[in-house]
Amino acid sequence: MATKFWDKEAETMSRADIERRQLAGLKVAVARALQTPFYKPRLEGVGIKGPDDIKSLADLQRIPYTTKDDLRKAYPYGMVAVDRRDIVRLHASSGTTGTPTVIYLTQKDVARCADFMARSISATGADANDVFQNVVNYGLFTGGLVMHYGAERVGMLVIPSGTGNTSRQIKFMKDFGTTTVHATPSYLLHIHSKLAEEGVSPGDLKLKRAFCGAEPYTEDTRRKIEGLFGIEVFNSYGLSEMNGPGVAFECERRDGMHLWEDGYILEVIDRASLESVPDGELGELVLTILCREAMPILRYRTRDLTSVYPEPCPCGRTHRRIARITGRSDDMLIINGINVFPSQIEEVVMAMPEVGTNYLILVEKQGSLDKLTVKVEVGPGQFADDSRPLNALRERIRARLQALISINPHVELHEPGMLPVSEGKAKRVIDERAKL
Amino acid sequence: MRIQQISVFLENKTGRLAEVTRLISGAGVNIRALSIADTAEFGILRLIVDRPADAAEALAKGGFTTRMTDVLAIEIPDQPGSLAKVMEIFKDTGVNIEYLYASLEKDCATAVVIFKVEDLELGIKIATQHKLSTVECL
Q1: Which class does domain B2-69 fall in?
Q2: For testing the chain B interface, which of A190, A393, A415, A418 should be mutated: the one with the most B CBs within 10 Å?
Q3: Could you tell me the CA-to-CA distances from A163 to A149, A270, A417 in Å, in that order?
Q4: What is the per-residue burial (b if ≥16 Cβ within 10 Å, else e) of A178-197?
Q5: pLDDT tens per residue across span B12-44
Q6: pTM for the full model?
Q7: Which residues in chain A have their CB less than 8 angstroms from residue B116's CB?
Q8: Which partner from A93, A233, A392, B70 sits 20 to 30 angstroms from B85, CA to CA?
Q9: Nearest CA distance, A391 vs chain B (angstrom)
Q10: How far does the CA of residue B107 sit from the closest CA of chain A (Å)?
Q11: ipTM of the complex
């Protein structure tokens, strides 16, 4: 198939050209950062007093990492590099711990976000023929507005439906002939479970593709969604600190997300040594944003775990691909001393055809030990007036989990639709152990 | 001969059973017999009602997972030895029983026993041959 490009020149430029752009971009970003109260002492402390101190991309290594905590310390304006009058918008992440992390955009930044987003959307084959329902939270969250601007840029008909009111979402999909949706995987599964109630079958919809991001999910969940709706699901990667969606996106091959290296410098590091790991190896993604003038962020530790594909993509894009996010480094649960990622549990649970669309992980203290409970919704077709198959299913899930994570979990089966559903990022893990 | 039983998947959660009876009562359906099989995690409620289709519809609308199953209902005299006689017949003719439960009527001299048998056709044939009093509706 012929690859559709949004900006062929930028998307297929040679590695040397990418690096030339990155070096120029880094110099600009450093010059801007030096104007901020947060970065000025930091950069001068390592001998970087001006853009000319960045001679090659290797000089990036001299710059200390920036963490989420740093963003909080710099709250509210400590990392702003432009005049306040030039800022046209701010976005904030859901600060579950008090101080939100905020990013600022100038008019030009907004346009560049939209451009990277448009590039991402076009890579999936979507174009002005498509009707796009943006089923994510608008407002402070970057996922709504940034995606919206990109989709308009591509020329799609955008339905800014936001989240919630599932029955209206389904009506819109049907009545407007939505071909493309942007939603979290868990909300798409929830929508599917409500189709029958609305008297709609997946065949009544014109849906062709979905963009999924915002929460880690497994390949099995992707296949499940693809099968249930008869669509293609594209992974989207972004984080509000880096302008939200449009940082990396899957192309039509749906095999890894192209990270737009003319807008970001990517590194993958070992979480213990903080040294770079070779391509192909799992580590924490570190990003430096080059496509934002209002607020430079250098070497930001995303806490997202991924690896870089060592080989080029057959689509012809030269920007390297990152693997689906396998978890946030701070998502990791330590259960009785064993490291467990929620994604490992999801992998087992979603691979079972008998399992419905929702699950929940509960960790609690039982005496001095940790107890892991995995609550699973049984698919509606599975019930047959007989407890034996259900008990067998429960045992099968338990045994597979134990084999994978070396912890013997307690598995609970639930009626379809009984576990709590969230319309934004799914809350799949409840840790009730007292924080030490 | 055969009557329809509604099975409802119930997770172990306060108020789920009350929700079932509320929905059935809301549909104006009368419960004639019921039994609950429970495991530690979930239960299966089995119901015989006067209007099974209406009850099943009300439960499905209320978000419950249900399944219709055909069962055999046999009326026996409410006196010692009647159930034993039926069981003896089923044992001798190879009618395997998966579960059973009974419905008694206080002002009546009979009891109705609901049998879920492995092979319903065989069960019906044997019951007819042995002139057991089968019930068409409850």
Answers
A1: alpha beta
A2: A415
A3: 17, 36, 18
A4: bbbbbbbbbbbbbbbbebee
A5: 788 888 999 999 999 999 999 999 987 777 889
A6: 0.72
A7: 385
A8: B70
A9: 9
A10: 31
A11: 0.75
Residues of B in contact with A414 (CB under 8 A): 11, 42
pLDDT of A217 reads 80
A355 within 8 A of A189, measured Cβ to Cβ = no
* B133-134 vs A87-92, strand pairing mode: unpaired
What CATH number does the domain located at B70-134 have? Answer: 3.30.70.260
H-run or E-run covering A178:
none
Q: What is the pLDDT of residues A91-125, one digit of tens each?
A: 987 554 467 889 999 999 999 999 999 999 999 99
Contact B65 A415 (CB under 8 A): yes
Domains of chain A, first to last? 1-331 (3.40.50.12780), 332-431 (3.30.300.30)
Inter-chain residue contact B42 with A416, CB threshold 8 Å: no
Asked if A378's CB is within 8 angstroms of B41's CB, the reply is no
**Residue range(s) occupied by CATH 3.30.2130.10 in chain B:** 2-69
Distance (Å, whole) CA A343 – CA A358? 13
Choose among B5, B10, B67: nearest Cβ to A384: B67
